[in-house]
Amino acid sequence: MVSQRRHVQEKHERFNVNLFLNEFNFRYHTDFKVVEEPNPPEAIIQSKGSTRWVEVTTAYMSEEYAVDLNTYAVVGERHKPSRQGLLIEADGKFAKQFVSVVKKKLEKPTYEPFYKKHGKGYLVVSVKYPLFGVDTLKTIQRIWDETQVLDKSFFKSIYITYPIFGRYKTSLWKSNLG
After folding, report:
1. What pLDDT is recorded for position 105?
2. How far apart are CA 69 and CA 5, in angstroms?
3. pLDDT tens for each residue of 111-148
């Protein structure tokens, strides 16, 4: 089961790296390509003499929702669906989860070797929250502003990927960190 779960996670990470690269290359007229997948980070990317790295993380609506999605995706694992019920303060709960996930990545010292070798990397946060929207972003920003983060300055910027109208979109969330 562990290898199946890891396989699903790798596909998820690769998908998010590709979403990020498509948007980044289009927006900045670059041609970055994945040249390595050391895990961590998920990808070493290169473009005409410039090398960077990409780390992917996921912010879920809740731990229960994470279990629901992941047990559904892993072949041979018994699906554990989320309980149905009323969502109260959903944006606030998700925003706290999102900020916690990002904070952990920014404070993590183990990215130092990649930073020393390739410079600042890019953090891509996959959003798994069906109610995600403009109000959610405002709530995330408010909670972010109230949170003390001991940023190790390993990341150049943070991008978010999220589903919208049956497709996925990648957007810059924070730039020029640290």
Report:
1. 97
2. 12
3. 999 999 999 999 999 999 989 999 999 999 999 999 99
Within the chain, which residues score under 50 in pLDDT? 72
Q: What are phi and psi of 67, to 5 degrees?
A: -65, -45
Q: Which tokens is 14 given?
A: 């690769």
- 3-class secondary-structure state, position 120: coil
Rounded Cα distance, 52 and 119, in Å: 6
Which of these, 149, 178, 139, 162, lies nearest to 20 by C-alpha position? 162
Residue 63, C-beta contacts closer than 8 angstroms, at least 6 positions apart: none
Residues 6+ apart with CB under 8 A from 134: none
Torsion-angle region of residue 99: left (phi > 0), alpha (psi -120 to 50) or beta? alpha
Q: Which residues of 111-130 are buried (b: 16+ CB within 10 A; e: fewer)?
A: beebeeebebbbbbbbbbbe
Residue with tokens 């109230």: 146
Enumerate residues 6+ apart whose C-beta is below 8 A from 160.
Answer: 124, 125, 126, 127, 170, 171, 173
